[in-house]
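Suppose a colleague, Dr. K., hands you the sequence of a protein chain of 344 amino acids and asks what its three-dimensional shape might be. Before reaching for any lab equipment, you can write down a predicted structure in token form. Begin with the sequence itself:
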Amino acid sequence: MSAQERQDTLLRRLVAADDAASDVFLTMSTFGRSTLFHDGLPNPDHQIEVGLGDIKSLAVRGLLAITERRAHGDVNFTVTQKGHAYVAQIVQAAPAVTIEAVPPVSVPVEANTPYETGDARVRQLAFDAWIVTGTWPLVPDLQRDAERRREVIDLDEIARRLDHSIGWIEPRDLSLVLRIKGFADLDGARPYLDAFLRVVGLLYQKYLSQEKKARLTDKDLLLEGFDDDLIRRIYSIADREWLLFGGGQGSESGAWSREPSTNIRKFRDVKTVDDYLRVVTGLSGPTSVPVLPEADAPKDAGDSPMHGSDSALLTRIATHPVIAIVVAVAAIVGTVATVIALFR
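The predicted structure, expressed as tokens, is then:
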């Protein structure tokens, strides 16, 4: 079952429970499991297991409204009118379902399953944790959780092999940070990718505006319907993409304003994540490095203690115009010093 299908199934259960008893839903997490409580759930104890990542993804899509954020990533929430309307549409194309336990986002694997080369698994674990908390997880914490599940995987080794276009381990706290390319293919990413692409489009519109120093701000995103949590997350993602923002400022309160970078014009036709990554690859490709003119290697290079590329390198250095000037000046200074010494 894909993340989309899982979330749609969960939303249908939430709408059915909301119709049965109009009340606030609340989650409670302990020992890596999250339980949802609501009087409208038909189970005798009125609770089901859920993935917090799915709850928050549905909220990003506007299908749920989070009314309170609590410790350990837990939330209180309600189903929005948009959520009810969405379910009404999908019910027409699918049979009714009964309410049962929903598998969490990170499904524990069988004991001792080898993942020594599983970078996709490591990225998914990090992203699942980010969905729940809004901060990138520490590698030691991810490793400890894997051990508790008896999952054989060397997270630190795999994470350190990630290309920086995908993600990296932050030296200051050992958190595993992912960029767009690092989570674009993962379950639960779609709502955040859609929000990110909207920000790219807004930056380009700011670039085209008549304002002298046009800036995109957190208030602009509020007007676009982003909530505070999503604004903080998307700003953090965009700021690590390096090619989008120019100058600007931020504050400890979370308010920020940033100018679009001059590179933003390259993203004018970006409509999908693939479009975005294609432009990034083009802008981040290898750059040409000027080299000194090649010189013919001496014919008797084989008699020299340095051969081949070493000899050619010395020849190139010696014939470089700047080096030639320095040598000439040194020779003149040496000659003058010799003449002065003769007349003393």
